[in-house]
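If your schedule permits, I should be very grateful for your opinion on a structural question. Kindly check, if you would, that the fold set down in the tokens agrees with what the sequence suggests. Thank you for your consideration; the sequence and its tokens are set out here:
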Amino acid sequence: MRFLRLRTGQTRWLAGVLAGATALFLVTAAWAAPSGVESAAKARLLGALHPGKSTEGASIHANPDGTVRYLLAPPGGFFKGQSAAKSGGVDAAAKAFVAEQATAFGVSQPGITFRTVSVQYYNGLSYVRLQQQYKGVDILGAQIVVQMNGALGVPSVMSEVLTDTTALENGSVSMTPAINADDAVERAIEEMVRLNPGLGAGEFQKSGAPVLSLYLPAILDESGDIHLVWAANVSAREIPSPLRETILVDASDGKVLFHYSLTPKLDDRRLWSAGNSLYSWSAAERASFCDWQAAFADPSIPLYQNYLRHLEVRFEGDLPCGITAADNLYDLLGGCYNFFMEKFSRDGWDGFGSTYIGVVNLPLTIYETQTTWDQQCGVALGMFPIEGMIQDDIVAHEFMHTVTGTIVPDFIYAGESGALQEGYSDAFGEFVDWYLSSWGNDAEEV
């Protein structure tokens, strides 16, 4: 096993592309005509339109229940909220517009609120991502993205939210959990054991505290009714590991309802080597990503002294170490860094010069490329088991997962959103392939 550390140092352009493209991809395939929108709400919505000089009308795409899923002003035009105020900022203006048009978007029910997830900027426009809540509890994946111009006008809105709260209002679904967070973690670990035959419960641990949430399957392209759940993140104890999942445990009876992976299938670099087998760490050496980051920053701590220092093969600026897979990955990660810096002025995978660890020559029990990251402590990890996987488009594909994951940190790797994330990685994998066309075998079949 070999490790490469790449310090890479945010770009508004790329954030805007992802925010806008996500909205576009989500609406073009499935939305119906606007005829079902309730007439008074539709009139109120169209009354807020400032068409500018365009002779075109607004585009309104509706859900089957008639509520607005996508709203687009004509070129040069925008919608304007009555209570938009510059003093409140773009996120406050976005929330105010949604509140004014709540009936049109299907979110006027008591208990529905929104919190700001992020604000991204590109070319004079802002993209405000709002998370839907019911009585303060997040509804998984239920969000509205509001595009704002410099005058706090709204050129477009993309919405995929809960519009029917009947089961919550009449008590069919209780908002009080019958099982506690610890029981939910235990059940989630049992599910990880079921999903990974041969591993025992002691091989897994929770990653952070479970979060009480509402799960509406339709948001993730699944079927079924809404449930109150504990969203528990569980990972393998040994680091590095591709085994990290979010398990949704029914808060009423402990049944597992859904799960999704947290590991989608530069310029201060360091490499480590430990042969082609996973190192058997003692309990004290089983470290988190943040522990690894601390070890990189302070080589005097035990994790470095007891483990990492024995694996070093190459540091930034050194000559090639002679290990083909490690040297090739070193070069390609540097190429990914250069692409994002040159084309988007983005300093690495998270835009802030954080660490990237590359892992090569893994045992054959790990047979897929994997990527995971922890933005809070600034560490990303890419696993490339065999030398043949270290190609420019494959490495860039995995690198792009970390970029997407930091721009949209709550991207759910399931259903349509998971397909979008893979699509972005495929596209940027080819962009980097073109950018590095002088590297390696760029034949069509590769």
Remarks:
- Residues 65 and 436 are 48 Å apart (CA to CA).
- The radius of gyration is 24 Å.
